[in-house]
Design a protein that fits this description.
There is one protein chain. This protein is α+β, with helices and mostly antiparallel strands. It contains eleven helices and twelve strands. The structure holds adenosine-5'-diphosphate.
């Protein structure tokens, strides 16, 4: 409805304006046609005195000359003397003759008072145009007036006809435009409706839905962007589900072990001291395992909470790496792995010291864990003027090509049973990668099975 109104309102304004313009044009045309005849009359009047006029009645003779509109009643001329008394009238011989009466019409009085009056349009029973001009008696010099009264009903009849047609045309055009706009708007809105429908179903939980893309306009850009976003949402949702299922699985294994161990102690009447100690030891190991998992989970959640969890300060990377190596030296010694450190450059960077230490330490510890005795783990700290480069290289068991992408995933282990024995939770590399990404850095792995692995970390020296 508003579209139709919108299309009709301008047409209406146009019609009113154009009608006013046409009316003015016709009236001016009529004025310029009959105006000069009032002057002719005033010239005739000049040859008489006002009393003489009443007697001679020249306007009756003039009637033929000034009766200008064929087929119409014609213009009426009335002459008044200075006291506004009618002295001659083209209708003198008719019933409505005004001769002898005083004509108290505003425009006549104005002219008698020496003011000029523009032509005036009156609307009575019919539309009339009145033109009043002064008429001077050349003998006495007295000033009277000539009043010209002309019916312009013919003009208004034509105008009414034009108006009717114009409005009919406008209505037709308005309806056509309205229908066209309605049709166009429907076409424009239809894809939006479709988008809304899909979005509503998605917000109700149906994340697998996609908006069909049929056109190549802005809607398709919107739909495509929305579909991309949904895909990511779905991915996040899937990752979350996977994560929860992994956590449950990881915690369930030690819990099941504890349950079996404790039940086997409880089910026996008298358990020999050393057997129960051994079982208790196993239970204790499983509990340690669960503690490790939850500690790592908490650490991972913290780094994944993004920026707000970072506590950035100027950090001496060489010192940080040396501390890590010192801490891990007993483990390396126990495994008979040689720990090497090379400091190519001294470098200080903007970093969260504690989180970054954990990230690097995880990788060095892996190097030690997955390198057989006699092997080496070497850490190198180098930098260019934008980044610090930390490489951790071991001569250990290596990682098969197809596993290299996956080992950064949470809970991912290459060899499930063996890795569990090493005490790993499968979260270490996930924590390391999340931390490095949080520092706007990157982490790369090159590895060959049985030759060893090389982890390269790059972190920008300045955060901003
Ligand atoms: P975990 O706590 O089990 O070590 P990580 O996330 O640190 O978990 O590592 C994931 C898996 O990647 C490990 O279980 C192991 O299979 C493999 N991995 C990690 N680092 C090395 C390495 N230096 N050499 C060989 N395999 C490795």
């Amino acid at each position: 409805m508003s579209y139709v109104a919108l299309s009709i309102v301008p047409l209406l304004i146009f019609n009113v304006t154009i009608m006013a313009f046409i009316q003015e044009y016709f009236l001016n045309d009529r004025i310029s046609e009959i105006g000069p005849r009032a002057i002719v009359v005033s010239d005739v009047v000049a040859g008489f005195t006002f009393e003489g006029l009443q007697r001679a009645a020249p306007l009756s003779q003039l009637r033929q000359r000034v009766n200008i509109h064929q087929g119409q009643t014609g213009a009426r001329f009335i002459v008044v003397d200075p006291s506004a008394r009618v002295v001659d009238d083209t209708n003198r011989s008719m019933d409505d003759s005004l001769v002898g009466q005083t004509l108290l019409q505003r425009e006549v009085l104005e002219v008698l008072n020496g003011r000029s009056v523009p032509p005036i349009l009156y609307r009575g029973d019919e539309y009339v145009l009145k033109i009043a001009i002064s008429a001077r008696d050349n003998y006495s010099g007295e000033v009277g007036a000539v009043l010209l009264v002309d019916s312009v009903d013919d003009i208004f009849n034509s105008l009414a006809e034009i108006r009717t047609r114009l409005y009919l045309y406008s209505l037709a055009v308005g309806l056509m435009v309205g229908l066209l706009v309605l049709f166009m708007s429907h076409r424009l809105i239809a894809p939006l409706r479709q988008i809304v429908r899909v979005v509503q179903r998605m917000s109700a939980g149906q994340l697998n839905l996609r908006i069909p893309i049929s056109s190549r306009d802005e809607y398709s850009i919107l739909s495509r962007t929305f579909n991309d976003m949904t895909e990511k949402l779905e991915q996040v949702d899937k990752t979350r589900e996977e994560f929860v299922s992994n956590v449950s699985h990881e915690l369930k294994t030690p819990l099941t072990a504890i349950k079996v161990l404790s039940e086997s102690i409880l089910s026996q009447e008298s358990v020999p001291e050393e057997v129960s100690r051994e079982f208790m030891q196993d239970i204790n190991n499983e509990v340690d395992r669960m503690v490790n998992i939850t500690t790592d989970l908490l650490a991972l959640v913290k780094v994944e909470q993004r920026e707000q969890s970072l506590n950035i300060a100027l950090t001496d990377i060489n010192e940080l790496v040396e501390d890590i190596l010192k801490r891990l030296a007993p483990l390396a010694e126990q495994k008979k792995v040689i720990l090497l450190y090379e400091e190519v450059r001294q470098v200080q960077i903007d970093a969260d010291e504690i989180k970054l230490a954990l990230a690097i330490s995880n990788i060095v510890e892996n190097g030690i864990k997955y390198t057989p005795g006699g092997g080496t783990v070497k850490v190198v700290v180098d930098s260019d003027h934008q980044n610090v480069h930390i490489t951790i290289q071991d001569t250990g068991i290596g990682i098969p090509e197809e596993e290299q992408d996956k080992i950064f995933n949470r809970f991912y282990r290459v060899d499930k049973t063996r890795d569990r024995d090493t005490g790993g939770t499968g979260l270490g590399l996930a924590i390391s990668r999340a931390t490095v990404l949080l520092h706007n850095g990157s982490i790369r792995l090159t590895s060959n099975p049985d030759e060893g692995s090389l982890f390269s970390i790059r972190i920008p020296i300045r955060m901003s």
